[in-house]
Design brief:
about 400 residues, alpha/beta, Rossmann fold, two-stranded antiparallel sheet, about 20% strand, cell wall biogenesis/degradation, hydrolase, cell wall
């Protein structure tokens, strides 16, 4: 149970605004000129017609910052991340938190990294329409079920939330998009794999549509105790939230166990839309929860290594290098672009420090922002793979504290 609770944890930026005398769609903080963008709720009429509700029944939401100039008809949509819930107790807990209810979320978000409106910080996408899709279903926007046992009511409606938000954005300009990029981080990065090909169906046939997953390439691998912790977790999730019906049908037909198509490594080769994977070869979320979860490390032999790669012994480094090899092998499917570095991190497109800054991580002297921009605009082939740890001195090893 401890491992499952930790799988539901996430990282957030909480923005507290003490005084607002008006309600613009965005403001700039006086302290550091951060771009803060206000929340938009999907109208109740749209949500009700589709049955699109967060776990607790609240309305879906997103944050939109309008594009301008040459980017006025280009759209970047980013799924928010934040773990999953795969059983009734964890989903009930989640429904009482910001991860399951828009009524409990911060109403303003910082737009940075790939969402920045500053040309010097986000050179290729700064003037696009940029949307952050809030995450409140606990299943990477993929479920379609309801739990009502007379005691509890939970809405597993991630698929409907996705449809409702697109429905609300289409008349705001998305229906006339010339260029579009669907992105997401962590559980949101996994959502990109699930919805990439579907996204293109909402847009003009002439639009240039591509997809970017950041920290969402979750692997189906055994942990240090030779258990399939992530596989078991995902199978329970797929069954609880009615996800199988929304998985790629070509993938589900090809596997004896169709629920495995929730894993990106199985779904990727069936995605037809141009796709870019941004991932650390030593993704810390997968390291902590899939490779060396507490349930598999009952004596705590991996504790020091988990929080400080320099403290890993030779055998632990071998295990980590094996995980990297598994990831690279899984990425040999049809893929248009990638940036796989050797940093101990998870999600690198949302933070300005890792997206595009003077000391950002680099592969072959190329930042993540430059690699993604080159790929999207077809400036050059972009398949950047880092050398194994510890060769990369540009890394930001962002290892979160596990609580």
């Amino acid at each position: 149970m401890a491992a499952k609770k930790k799988l539901n944890s996430g990282v957030e930026i909480v923005v507290v605004l003490v005084l607002l005398t008006c309600a613009p769609s965005c403001i700039h903080s006086a302290d550091d000129n951060r771009l803060l963008v206000n929340m938009t709720l999907v109208p109740n009429s749209t949500a009700s017609a589709l049955g699109a509700f967060c776990l607790d029944g609240s309305l879906p939401a997103y944050h939109l910052h309008r594009g301008f100039g040459a980017g006025a008809r280009n759209w970047l949509l980013q799924f928010e991340g934040g773990g999953w819930c795969n059983d009734i107790p964890s989903c009930l807990d989640r429904a009482k938190s910001r991860r399951g209810s828009t009524s409990l979320m911060a109403k303003w978000l910082v737009f940075s990294g790939i969402l920045s409106n500053n040309a010097s910080l986000n050179p290729d996408f700064y003037n696009w329409n940029r949307v952050k899709i809030r995450y409140c279903d606990g299943a990477s926007f993929a479920g379609n079920a309801t739990l009502d046992d007379g005691k509890s009511l939970l809405y597993f409606r991630g698929q409907k939330i996705w449809q409702a938000i697109l429905t609300d954005l289409l008349p705001k300009g998305l229906a006339n998009a010339e260029k579009a990029l669907l992105s997401g981080c962590s559980a949101g990065g996994l959502a990109v794999f699930l919805h990439c090909d579907n996204f293109i169906n909402f847009l003009p046939r002439t639009a240039s549509v591509k997809c970017l997953s950041d920290g969402g390439f979750f692997l189906d691998v055994s942990d240090i105790a030779l258990n399939h912790t992530m596989r078991s977790f995902y199978k329970n999730l797929v069954q609880l939230q009615g996800i199988e019906q929304n998985l790629n049908p070509n993938c589900t037909k090809s596997l004896d166990d169709p629920e495995l198509c929730f894993f990106p490594q199985y779904a990727l080769k069936y995605i037809e839309t141009p796709f870019f994977v941004l991932n650390s070869a030593y993704d810390v979320f997968q390291f902590h929860h899939g490779l060396a979860p507490p349930s598999a490390d009952i004596h705590g032999q991996w504790n020091r290594c988990s929080f400080n790669p320099a403290a890993c012994n030779a055998n632990q480094i071998d295990v980590l290098q094996g995980f990297r090899n598994d990831m690279l092998a899984a990425l040999q499917s049809r893929l248009d672009g990638m940036f796989v570095n050797s940093c101990f991190a998870h999600c690198q497109s949302e933070s300005q420090d890792t997206w595009f800054a003077d000391d950002s991580p680099r592969i072959h002297d190329k930042t993540i922002a430059e690699a993604v921009g080159d790929w999207y605009y077809n400036r050059r082939v972009t398949k950047e793979i880092d050398c194994p740890y510890p060769c990369d001195s540009s890394c930001h090893n962002l290892i979160p504290e596990i609580k």
